[in-house]
């Protein structure tokens, strides 16, 4: 079985119960087709790069799983006919080498998905220019 990552972008006005039901139905479908769920990470509501069906934001969810290839087609077919799903994307991941942990779990499973807390910019010592205070901006207006 191969490892996949599924990103779901759901309508922001969908009730939380309906969003949970869609994610649950998708994970149950994967496991029924012989797959295994590795991680489900809700990212919450985020602004879209461009409007989709007159929506400017979407509710993001990431599902990391292992499944046989035929199971992916059925999951995508179901997501395509679900009204609350604005977009979805399934990506095959290259597996990292297994670590030698004693409990049999992969040490990289926790590090695969960035969390909301990881979005904070770390100070890496490089100088950043604040474009709002740029000296070129007033000259361009004149």
Please tell me how large the radius of gyration is.
20 Å
Give the strand line-up of the largest sheet. Answer: 2-3-1-4
How many beta-strand runs? 4
The H-and-E topology, N to C, reads as EHEEHEH
- Mean pLDDT, as a whole number? 80
| Cα end-to-end separation | 62 Å
Structural class: alpha+beta
Give the biggest beta sheet.
4 strands, antiparallel
At CATH's second level, what is the architecture of the domain at 2-94?
2-Layer Sandwich
Helical percentage = 10-25%
Task: Give an overview of the whole structure.
- It is a single chain.
- With 142 residues, the chain is α+β, with helices and mostly antiparallel strands.
- The chain has a domain at 2-94: Alpha-Beta Plaits.
- Helices cover 25% and strands 34% of the residues.
- It has helices spanning 16-32, 69-80, 136-141, and strands spanning 2-10, 36-52, 55-67, 85-93.
- A four-stranded antiparallel beta sheet has the order 2-3-1-4, with helices on one face.
- The longest helix is centred in the N-terminal third of the chain and has 17 residues, at 16-32.
- The relative contact order is 0.22.
Summarize the structure.
By secondary structure, this protein is of the alpha+beta class. It has helices at 16-32, 69-80, 136-141, and strands spanning 2-10, 36-52, 55-67, 85-93.
């Amino acid at each position: 079985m191969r490892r996949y990552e599924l990103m779901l972008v759901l309508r922001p006005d969908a009730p939380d119960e309906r969003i949970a039901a869609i994610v649950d139905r998708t994970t149950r479908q994967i496991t029924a087709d012989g797959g295994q769920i590795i991680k489900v990470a809700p990212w919450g509501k985020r602004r879209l790069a461009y409007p989709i069906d007159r929506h400017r934001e979407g509710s993001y969810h990431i599902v990391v799983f292992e499944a046989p290839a035929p199971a992916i087609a059925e999951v995508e077919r179901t997501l395509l006919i679900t009204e609350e799903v604005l977009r979805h994307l399934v990506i095959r991941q290259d597996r990292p080498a297994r670590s030698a942990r004693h409990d049999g779990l992969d040490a990289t499973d926790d590090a695969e998905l960035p969390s909301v807390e990881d979005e904070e910019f770390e100070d890496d010592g490089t100088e950043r220019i604040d474009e709002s205070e740029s000296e070129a901006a007033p000259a361009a207006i004149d």
